[in-house]
Design a protein that fits this description.
Strand order of the largest sheet: 9-8-7-6-5-2-1-11-10
Helix content: 40-55%
Shape: globular
Number of strands: 11
Distance between the termini: 23 Å
Order of helices and strands: HEHEEEHEHEHEHEHEEHHHEH
Strand content: 15-25%
Structural class: alpha/beta
Radius of gyration: 20 Å
Oligomer: single chain
Number of helices: 11
Largest sheet: 9 strands, parallel
Amino acid sequence: MSVTDKINLAKNTAFSFELLPPLKGNGIDSVFRTIDILREFDPQYINITTHRSEFVYRDKGDGTFVRLAERQRPGTVAVAAAIRSKYNISVVPHILCSGFTREETEYLLIDLQFLGITDLLLLRGDKAKTDTEFIVSGNAHATDLQQQVNQFNNGFFANGEAMKNKETRFSYGMACYPEKHEEAPNIDADLAWAKKKVENGAEYLVTQMFFDNEKYFAFVEKCRENGINVPVIPGIKPITLCNQLTVLPKIFKVDIPDIFARELAKCKTDEQAAEAGVEWCIAQAKELKARGVPSIHFYSFMATESVRKVAKGVY
């Protein structure tokens, strides 16, 4: 059963979360520990992030430096396969435009298809940390990546060559932004892109993290008014550190409601911030569940224990 089917057929609000592959050189044990902590809540699927290479400069020892491309978190495909094998839980690897050529994307699709992993989340991804703007290395936009996956599903490689054997098609979701993408001029323009994603085959949308449920509900209402009728999965994250009061809005371009921001500003320690974050996230999740969302997706990076507390209070 595809993740789309699980979302559409869920009798109650499903639980899912996102994992990062371990840093290069580390084992997979940390990934398994996270799953062991959260599996009691019957996750219907687990997302595995993908990370582009970043440029680093290595001292050659003679006063000069060499510029190298290095990926800090490789292994998305292997981690997805290991999770599915060990836990028999559906996995959703992320596929990015950023930092990947069309050929590299095609190789990822082939590897995943060989493994029988056919649920994907298609994303543009962020620009490299050293770049001032997004540099195109393959697909420029998530909708371009979507076209490549659709072409693959229809039996054609990126160069137009027909496949000799057609395997199981990929099922996929894509991202959406209740507070609009940072590069969109306005919410209506952003909704037009979301509608295009759905018209071209996205089976569900997953939101950027948000802390104000009213913005999510208003966004879903606008989606429906614009003919976007696929599930819109809310993605939420419990705040765990004091500095996230300013860091998260800066990085993800999201607002923190004033009442929550004032509570966080009172926190003197990260432990206090984490307690406030869990309390707020439980309230968010309970309201979302009461309003009948098909699934709640938790961004669990650096927040596994907090996600467990939230899930304990909601599921």
